[in-house]
Amino acid sequence: MSRLSDVLDRLAATIEARKGGDPSMSYTAKLLNDPALAAKKLGEEAVETVIAAVAQGPEALAAESADLLYHWLALMAASGVSLDAVAEKLEAREGTSGIAEKASRKS
User: Fold this and answer.
1) Which residues contact 46 (CB under 8 A, 6 or more apart)?
2) Rounded to two decimals, what is the model's pTM?
């Protein structure tokens, strides 16, 4: 996982560097300027990732997953949600079964 982690760290830094950029010159700046657009694009990429998973094979799934991760990182940055905040949520769930964790959210 370290290779993916390294790539995501670099991508997150690139996205951060685009903050305040000209939306007419940078797609990332455009997403950062409009969290609703970033959310919409993430949703589109999620659907495309599912389609690739069930109907298009591993190469398409890898490509769509890359798009999904990019748009997720852009949405987090556009919404002011730090990756550390997400990590904190994941860490809090470590060692808990998925079924138990999901049940705990209902109360």
Assistant:
1) 68
2) 0.86
Q: How many CB atoms lie within 10 A of CB 99?
A: 8
- Closest Cα to residue 61, out of 46, 49, 77, 74? 49
- Angle among Cα 89, 29, 22 to the nearest 5 degrees reads 155
Where are the alpha helices (H) located in the chain, listed in sequence order? 2-17, 27-33, 35-55, 58-79, 83-93, 98-104
Cα distances from 9 to residues 33, 62, 82, 95, 107, in angstroms, run: 21, 18, 12, 25, 35
Model confidence over 15-73: pLDDT tens digits?
Answer: 999 999 999 999 999 999 999 999 999 999 999 999 999 999 999 999 999 999 999 99
Cα 43 from Cα 93, distance rounded (Å): 24
* Beta-carbon contacts of residue 76 (< 8 Å; ≥ 6 apart): 82, 83, 86
